């Protein structure tokens, strides 16, 4: 389970995990840009 939303079933090549992690990272980044709340003190994006 990745980010509580995405799962990879069965034995997969390392490239599959790499691709999923890259896609999830990109989606999380897009969500952060859309988020209007300021970052917590001491935390940078």
Would you kindly provide a brief summary of this structure?
The chain has 45 residues and is mostly helical. The protein has one helix spanning 14-34.
**Share of residues in strands:** under 5%
| Unreliable segments of 5+ consecutive residues | none
Class by SSE composition: mainly alpha
According to DSSP, the number of beta strands is 0
What oligomeric arrangement do these chains adopt? Answer: single chain
Radius of gyration: 14 Å
The main β sheet shows up as: none
Cα shape: elongated
The sequence of SSEs as H and E is: H
Head-to-tail CA distance between termini: 23 Å
Given the structure, what is the number of helices?
Answer: 1
Mean pLDDT: 78
Helix content: 40-55%
Tell me about this structure.
There is one protein chain. This protein has 1 helix and no strands. The model has no long low-confidence stretch (mean pLDDT 78). The chain has one helix spanning 14-34. 47% of the residues lie in helices and 0% in strands. It has 45 residues and is an all-alpha fold.
Please supply descriptive tags for the structure shown above.
45 residues, mainly alpha, single chain, 1 helix, 47% helix
